[in-house]
Amino acid sequence: MDYSMEDTQNSAPDAQQASKLNSSGQKSDTQSVTKRLQAELMQLMLSPSPGISAFPDADGNLLSWTATITGPTETPYEGLTLKLSFAFPNNYPYSPPTVLFKTPIYHPNVDFSGRICLDILKDKWSAVYNVSSVLLSLQSLLGEPNNASPLNAQAAELWDSDQAEFKRHVLARHQDLDDE
Amino acid sequence: MLSTVPLNVGRRRVCGSVFSPASLEAHPKSISDFRREQTPVASFQSSDSSSTFKADSQSTSFATIGGSTDTTSPEEDTLNQARQAAKEFLSVPNLGFELLYNFRNTDGSQVLKEWNRLSPPSKETAEALEYLMRTSPWTLFECQFSDWAIQGMDAVRRLNLLLKSPGEEGLLRTIVDCLQLARRIYLAPVVHYLLPLITTPHQGGFLAQLQRAFHTVVQYSLPWKKISPLLARELTQDAVVILGIDTLDEDSDADIMSLDGTEMERAYSVSYKDWKQGSPEVRAHMMVDGEDGRVTIARDRLLAFLNGLQLVGLGGDQAQKVFANVMNIMMGDFIRAAYAGEWESPSTVPQHLEQWIENVYARLVVHVLAIINSDPAGAQSGAMEVSLRDVEKWQVMGIARLGKLRVSELFDVIVDWPASSGAVEDLRRFTNNSSGARLYATNIFSVNLLQRLLHPGASTVEILQVYISIIRAFHILDPKGVLLDRIARPIRRYLRDREDTVKVIVSGLLADPATAEGPTATGDTLAELAAELTKVHHHSMQNNRSELDYDDLYWVPDPVDAAPDYKKSKSADVIDSLVSLFDSKETFVKEMQTLLADRLIQKRQNYDQEVTVLELLKVRFGDSALQACEVMLKDISDSRRLDLTVRNDQMLSGYRKQAGAGKLHAKVLSRFFWPEFQEQEFKVPDEITKLQARYATCFERRKDSRKLMWRNALGQVTVELELQNHTFKDEVTTRQATVIYAFQSDSSEPATKTIPELADELEMSPTLVRSACLFWVSKRILTEVQRDTFRVLEFLPTEDEEHHAHAAGDFSDVSDSEAGDTANAAAAAEAAAAAAAKESAEAAAMEKMNVYWQFIVGMLTNQGPMALNRIVMMLKIAVPGGFPFSNEELREFLGGMVSKGKLEIVNGGNYKIVH
Description:
The complex is a heterodimer. Helix content of chain A is 40%, strand content 13%. Chain A is α+β, with helices and mostly antiparallel strands. Chain A has one domain (29-173): Roll (Ubiquitin Conjugating Enzyme), CATH 3.10.110. Chain A has a four-stranded antiparallel sheet with strand order 1-2-3-4. Chain A is globular. By secondary structure, chain B is mainly alpha-helical. Among the domains of chain B are: 74-222, no CATH class; 436-541 and 560-583, no CATH class; 843-913, Arc Repressor Mutant, subunit A. Chain B has a three-stranded antiparallel sheet with strand order 3-5-4. In chain B, a hairpin with a 4-residue loop joins strand 1 and strand 2 (727-733). In chain B, helix 12 packs across helix 17 and helix 17 packs antiparallel against helix 18. At the A-B interface, helix 3, strand 1 and strand 2 of A face helix 39 and helix 40 of B.
């Protein structure tokens, strides 16, 4: 399996660069991004969905968040707490946020540095998506990996062949980041 | 004194050119003597601006001295003898200061006699004098001078002692009188016996020399620092009278007292009020003709005094400085006394001021300056010291002062607007003069505003009222709007922070303009705005000029002192300014909706007022912004039509016969466009529910796919109550009606219910039930037999019974509460309603805290355990609109959550979420 191909597809650095280019000379954009993120946060707080949660980091500009997904029941991730980082570009929501798993996770569509292969975070991104929809997508991705384009080929194989072994891998790789 | 050094140098040079170096060595003593004596003269002259004349005379006398001393050394003995004789004759017997002081008011001849100053000199003395005069007049001068230097100084030092008690009235006058006497005493023998000996051309010079010497002594020994405040006081005292400032002060008192009708007839007056009432011809003469006797006396007194001052050498430059100072203060005083609070329009204050300066002020200055002249020669020639240009300059200064006064008054002027437009006219003249004045005016006014208006003590209505006045006043002051722009910024910022600003503005707009015609200061509404809305509308239709009107031939660029983001406002459009307070129209429209909702729900014949306001606002904001309001109005008019139809249907289908309970009218609101209603719901009587159901079926038949949701808490009920001996009919809220309906019974026994019962029955909160019950108590329908238990008051007690009850009230609590007067009950009902409102507010606050709890949960879940401070900080960043609670309140709240087991406190006091 050609990982480098996938790496370019998982274009986190590129996205950031693009956002930088876009943001130059558009100071007022930051304002609208903040506004939008604040609204999203409010929405998340007022109508929380079970199993997902997100909150801005303490740096104060709202452009980086930490999110938490609880592993869905009846999946190998059941009962696990998974942390993610969100980095919003300056032209959000016109570009997708960069989302990474912080918690080590064993999953067909996530590589070992936490990068995620999910179409809505790449070319299928649309401004109607938001933090909560991204988190819900990721939550469902945990239960239904897209084995057609795996980042972790072994995991993809294992998922199809041996669920018990897969779960063992998941648990072996998982470690709680919390409570440092 | 700084200039002393170069002058001394200059003199040394003169000496050098006159004396040969050898002669200097030959008579070192006399020269050094001379120099010592001369020093004070030098210092005196250094402060004198017109020294050319003196310098000339000085150098000539040097030459004489130099020449004589140089050539007469062989005759030294004769000279010494003569000098001795002269000295004896000329010496002043030191009879003491007391004498001087006692005789200060006489012409001095008596004293002179006493001191033997008028007796002619003996023959030998006369010869000696003549000899001296011939050989060396300077020696004589020296004799005289040294005497003065010693004795004069002594006398003056005594005067100095007087200075130490400066509280005394007219002290300076006394001093000047004394000095004048002294001067006469000292100069008398000289004038009488020496002057004839001198050749006429030198006489003047010699006398001047002596005078100057006298002045030097006086000036040297009387410290100017002490004299100047005294002089200033003297000058002020008379100037106040001459300039008419004292009468102005009296006037304000007299105005209060002259209610008895005895109007003081005064042809001469500097008062602005008198002046204004006069015709133009009278105005022109008012300050010139028929001067008051007091003024004349004061002027004569002052001028005589200044004459004396000048004679004894206390006049001149320094006195002029003091005078200038005094006049400076006088101008300020006059302007304050004459024009403070004179704000009527049209304002003629500047003209009056200019006339006053020309006729009164300048006149005094001319008189005074003619006397205290720095240049003795000039004083004699009577040269005009005051040019017309000076007068003009003073007029400009006067206007500037007036502006300053107006600026300091500006806040009160604005508050009094529009009765005070004259003051703004004055100010306009001032601010048009210079841009510095504009800056000054705005700065001072801003400070005033901050101190007097923009504080929590002022109500929003007041602030808005003043802001409106400011807009109007500054529009006149500066049509370009730059000043307004500058002033308005802090106000606008402050108003934005006030929570009820929108509410006040919107309710003002919706107020009935008919009431606005009356006194606008009704307190809690800005009814003025409603009137303004219709008024300005006409304007804006007429001159709708935009900034980019290329056909505008009168276009001018923005003023230089405009702020970078200054935007010219179209007109003094008050509404625009107020509405633009908020970033978006949304806030405004939202508040508009809420208020409109309140008003529309009320039962009224028509809503023309609301419709008009809305139409007018639509012209401003455009249709789309006010769409929701539009829908609301349409809902109301639609539902009226619908109501009619539904009722017709009901009638046709024969429902009416069964529907005995009452008539039901409904207003159908489109929920999406109406604001959320906070009212607490409850259960209405079954009869009403039935009616509602029937109404709903009719409605649904008319309007497919629509469903009615009843908002029972909103609405009015016309209640008719029939009790045993009284009836009641009025419009009440549905809540009150429901409560009283629950008391309905067929039995003859008055129904009795407790609050918990009612609350259960009606599914209403006990506070609300209590509030409604108390309302009925206030209407004398219910009575509270004991706490929280109410009974229907079937029999209204007659007055006798009431008295009886009052009497009995002393003994029994029950009858006391029964007799409790209705006013109390009404108050109680209100209090209960307030309590209910508070309850719902608390519930809302709890609701809010729930939101914050979500934030906290989200924060602690994602960011790990956190300390309290960090949580507060994050909440402040993350929660839109900020976090209103203090650290302590949050600590308490989190403590509650810890005890509920939702949180735990981990190491270091960090809060951690419990999974």
